[in-house]
Write a structure and sequence with these properties.
GO terms for molecular function: arylsulfatase activity; metal ion binding. Belongs to the sulfatase family. Its EC number is 3.1.6.1. The chain has three domains: about 325 residues, Alkaline Phosphatase, subunit A, CATH 3.40.720; about 70 residues, 2-Layer Sandwich (Arylsulfatase, C-terminal domain), CATH 3.30.1120; about 130 residues, Sandwich (Jelly Rolls). It is built from 15 helices and 26 strands. Strands 1, 2, 4, 5, 6, 7, 8, 9 and 10 form a nine-stranded mixed beta sheet that branches. A five-stranded antiparallel beta sheet has the order 17-20-25-22-23, with no helix packed on it. Strands 11-12-13-14 form a four-stranded antiparallel beta sheet, covered by helices on one side. It is globular.
């Protein structure tokens, strides 16, 4: 069997979109609010579909969707791993801002790591406003069908704006009717929801488990794909495609196609390494690496959008976008004013792009301070124009790539472009500061020999695929065994689902002349803090004595940063300097210290010490998070 080759489809039309007889203002509610069907695959690679050039996979329905809408040739995920990319897709916020940067519950620390990972959120906090909540408040019926992966009991989709949530088993006995990843049950539940709400606007989020490991598909389909790079994976892609085709036909049969936005994408790049029996699942040629990596193979996603009357059929958009952009896009399509409902988001609306107007130039950023099961190491990245810089957090080394001429990221041009490296690194570091990004710390138990064996001697980011998955896997068995062994018995570093103490702005006792609680939906803060003598406090109960981490959520507009603020709790006093975040409602999370608290009634106070700018800051919440309990 010859190696599968890919040819990039020529962009016949550059973001060419159909424009109607007049154009409504983007902020004005549309005459008919469109339905939205958002379909998310799980670990689907950017080149796994026929419409993106794959020749050993059969995807006629998705190819049809591309022919009836826009195919984005350069769409990026917000994070190349599942949970944070899903959190960004739900909130429109960067994973670095959310402190949810790795899959849940995350990979435990190990001696093979040069760095210790930061403690990430163990679930999407309920205080975060999702696109489903905003659509529900605007009169949309909302439903999720399939995978959530943003928290367990108490943090599920029904707590985040989904009035209907159906999550069939992720792994099912593979049959033609049901698939091997619950595709049949997920699709049937979505069809029932669409039919039940066909006379009102609806948001239908279909989050498939396909093609995540363990790989499974009907034996009859597997037999038909014997010549594919991975026959089982190819059969799974056909099942996924059939499921999308069912929803397309269902919407058409109900007469809803003309007022329904259809969006198809994936959470992260395809799995290109050996991770479980029967893998690697795919490869992302010509792009480097895959799931878990900040290289193009891990970040690039298929993105198809069909919107009759807005997006020209068969058009191709080369403009770089990020999936965080989908939240403001969906909200704008529904006539929801983001500024007065949720406040600043990290994504931007693509409505103008869909109308044929180029997006203003911008940088795209990623921050991944974690280690993954796929063998990646902590890194950050920035893309500006055709240039991309990747900074390795273990040693601060950088790689600079010219994506226009080297999409495979094989040539590090950093040494030849020191001025460009300095400029991009400066912008990347400034962005991390404005995000309140968590950083890893030195690992005192670091084993250099083990690190060299797992990350240097065999660099998984440069794993070359053989002609088939079966031929690729054996070369990495020893590496996989060692990667699995180093994490045995260890626990991941995530915040607990229960036990933390959350002090909300609305519950504060205010001692102030001007500072007050601002209840508007896009605020929900202690704001108007123009007098440094103003202060706030909370009284609360500590259920169990122990050591608690103190985290404050603060926002600060440009020109107002630098205030020195004291936090008093448990007989301790912590001081921090307010960071500018670009906007007073552009919130970041700051860990300012650790305190031992006795059980019972306690008090926490926030008292500004200085105010060099027009205002101190806005505060949305304080969290006391248990890190050591008896």
């Amino acid at each position: 069997m010859t190696r599968v080759r890919y040819a990039r489809l020529a962009a016949a039309i550059y973001c060419s979109m159909l424009i109607g007889q007049g154009r409504a203002d983007e902020s004005a509610p549309p005459a008919v609010r469109p339905n939205v069907i958002l379909i998310l695959a799980d670990d689907l690679g950017v080149n796994d579909l026929g419409c993106y050039g794959r020749r050993d996979h059969q995807t006629p329905h998705l190819d049809q969707l591309a022919s009836e809408g826009v195919r984005f040739a350069c769409a990026y995920t917000a994070q190349p791993i599942c949970s944070p990319s899903r959190a960004a897709l739900m909130t429109g916020k960067a994973p670095a801002r959310l402190h949810l940067t790795n899959f849940l519950p995350g990979r435990p620390d190990a001696p093979s790591q040069r760095l210790l990972q930061p403690r990430i959120e163990g679930q999407l906090p309920l205080e975060e406003t999702t696109v489903a909540e905003l659509l529900q408040q605007a009169g949309y019926a909302t439903g999720l069908f399939g995978k959530w992966h943003l928290g367990g009991p108490g943090f599920g989709p029904e707590k985040q704006g989904f009035e209907t949530a159906v999550s069939p088993p992720a792994n099912t006995p593979p049959t033609l009717a049901d698939g091997g990843k619950g595709e049949g049950a997920i699709t049937a539940a979505a069809e029932e929801f669409i039919a039940a709400h066909r006379n009102e606007p609806f948001f239908c989020y279909v989050a498939h488990n396909n093609p995540h490991i363990p790989l499974a598909a009907a034996p009859e389909l597997v037999a038909e794909h014997g010549d594919a790079f991975h026959p089982v994976y190819a059969a799974m892609i056909e099942t996924l495609d059939d499921s999308v085709g069912r929803l397309m036909k269902h919407v058409d049969d109900l007469g809803l196609s003309e007022r329904t936005i259809f969006i198809f994408t994936s959470d992260n790049g395809g799995l290109h390494v050996l991770e479980s029996p029967g893998t690697p699942a795919t490869h992302n040629t010509p792009f480097r690496a895959g799931k878990g990596y900040l290289y193009e193979g891990g970040l690039r996603e298929p993105l198809l959008i069909r919107w009759p009357g807005v997006a020209a059929a068969g058009s191709v958009c080369e403009s770089p976008v990020v999936l965080t952009d989908l939240v403001p896009t969906i909200l704008a399509a529904a006539g929801i004013d983001v500024a007065t409902t949720v406040g600043p988001l990290d994504g931007v609306s693509m409505i103008g792009l869909l109308r044929g107007e180029p997006l203003p130039p911008r940088q795209l950023y990623w921050h991944f301070p974690n280690y993954t099961n796929q063998g990646s190491r902590p890194a950050s990245a920035i893309r500006e124009g055709e240039w991309k810089l990747v900074e390795q957090l273990e040693d601060a080394s950088v790689e600079l790539f010219d994506l226009a001429n080297d999409p495979s990221e094989t040539m590090n041009l950093a040494a030849a472009n020191p001025d460009r490296v300095d400029d991009l690194r400066r912008k990347l570091h400034a962005w991390r500061d404005r995000m309140g990004a968590q950083m890893p710390t030195t690992n005192p138990d670091f084993d250099a020999a083990l690190h060299r064996r797992l990350y240097i001697e065999q660099d998984p980011s440069r794993l070359p695929p053989e002609t088939t998955a079966a031929a690729t896997g054996p070369n990495w068995k020893a590496w996989r065994t060692a990667m699995n062994k180093v994490r045995e018995g260890a626990e991941p570093a995530v915040t607990p689902a229960a036990g933390d103490i959350r002090l909300h702005a609305r519950d504060a006792i205010v001692h102030a002349k001007t500072m007050r609680y601002e209840a508007e939906p896009h605020k929900n803060v202690l704001g108007y803090w123009t007098d440094p003598a103003d202060w706030a406090e909370w009284e609360f109960d500590v259920p169990e004595a122990g050591e608690y981490e103190v985290e404050i959520q603060q926002g600060c507009g440009d020109g107002s940063g630098g205030a020195l603020v004291a936090v008093e709790v448990g007989g301790e006093r912590f001081e921090f300097t307010v960071q500018e975040t670009g906007h007073f409602q552009q919130m970041i999370l700051r860990t300012i210290g650790q305190v031992k608290l006795a059980a019972g009634r306690q008090r926490l106070a926030i008292k500004p010490q200085t105010k060099p700018g027009p205002a101190v800051m806005d505060v949305r919440r304080v969290v006391l998070r248990p890190i050591a309990l008896p």
